[in-house]
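Last lecture ended with a question: if I hand you only a sequence, what can you say about the shape of the protein? Today we answer it with a concrete record. The protein is DUF7344 domain-containing protein. Below, first the input exactly as provided, then the predicted structure, then a couple of comments.
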Amino acid sequence: MSSDAHLGGSSELSSLTGVPAERYDVLRHPHRIRLLEVLEESDGRQSLTELTTALLDREDDDPGDGKRRHEIRIELVHNHLPRLADADLIDWNTEDGAELVAEPPVCPSALTVLLENDHDVEDLVSQVLDPVRLRLLEELEQRTGPHTLEELAKRLATHEPAAPPDSERAKIDLHHSHLPALADVDLLEYDREAGLIEYESH
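The predicted structure:
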């Protein structure tokens, strides 16, 4: 992963940990993240044509490629715009286009950095957008130095509703699921033998 990729500071992570888990799903596709960024930056509604062109531009596709333009438009109408509307983030219709009606659960620009710098961004975003993993990253970022598996499990069990309330169960989940997933996308280092975790700032 590029050393320029990041998810923002602790305030950005903190803003995510209070969001219901089901609302993360809408952010798990690069097109929807970019759509939210385009709409957040725009003044008022954006037509389907404008949104299609913006996505083509941001993905370095040729706006004059009629076939690709048609594919993007179909994806917008039948997938991404309805999903964002179902999450109560936008209002849209085919005639008037779309506009934001609610603040996204995370600033889209905090995620578009990943889109620009990491070729495995879909995997990365999918790995990170989980309430326990977001709380874990926040805990790691707020406290410098290595952390033990036991102390992280206790803090998560106490402070994160999405984590198991039992610290031993939280420890097992961290060891087998959350820590390996975040280590795979270079957001932390996990020494399995020593049980030590260290945050990888980017």
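Comments.
1. The first helix runs from residue 10 to 17.
2. DSSP finds nine helices and five strands in the chain.
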